[in-house]
# Entry
Amino acid sequence: MAEDSLAPLRWQGAQLAVLDQRALPEREHWIACRSAADVADAIATMAVRGAPAIGLAGAYGLALAAAAGENLDAAAGRLHAARPTAVHLAWALAAMRPPGGATDAASMAARAQQLHREDAAINRRMAERGAALLPPHSRVMTHCNTGALATGGWGTALGVIRIAHAQGRIAEVLAGETRPWRQGARLTAWELGQARVPCRRFWTTGARNMASSFPVSVTGSTNPWTLARRVCWA
# Structure
């Protein structure tokens, strides 16, 4: 599978290049992370965001710690402390050190890259299956950012939209601003622009009016779809 050009993480052997999402959409700036501490700072300061992307960044951070000969327990603790509420980060740090697994630099780097490939592949498959369910000329409303920038590539809900657009199924995307970080107005709109998907932005408080002004259903009924990374039932 071809690498997604919008993926926010690029492993370069001796360092991890992180697309600084705080700078988007005004400029595309890549941060060179050469240590676990650099990665922890990128996570803590929101240079990288989105649960899967944060987890993968943490995995690469642990690989950098192994290359530097650092204590891996201490490095994992530092990375986890950068975003202690991020479940995917804790999962990725544990996945990097399976029971009986090698912890040399080469093995750790290979494991981080494998986690990255697996995430992108899962997202792509999900996007293809979701896109197949959308009828032609669909109008979709989004909230926050669930695209490649939040993952290892392709994205989750926004990945469905990108693939559907390539198949001629998307008429327009309505991207909600999403306060306070404005992920929708900044990041989703930027991703859609890069993929040449027609997009209009709207203020978060205007979602109800947008939905009632014209049909946003993508099912042909009166019930619009909800595209989300995770859905929970209480």
Observations:
- The beta strands are 9-11, 16-19, 30-33, 138-142, 170-176, 199-202.
- The chain has two domains: 9-125, 126-213.
- The radius of gyration is 18 Å.
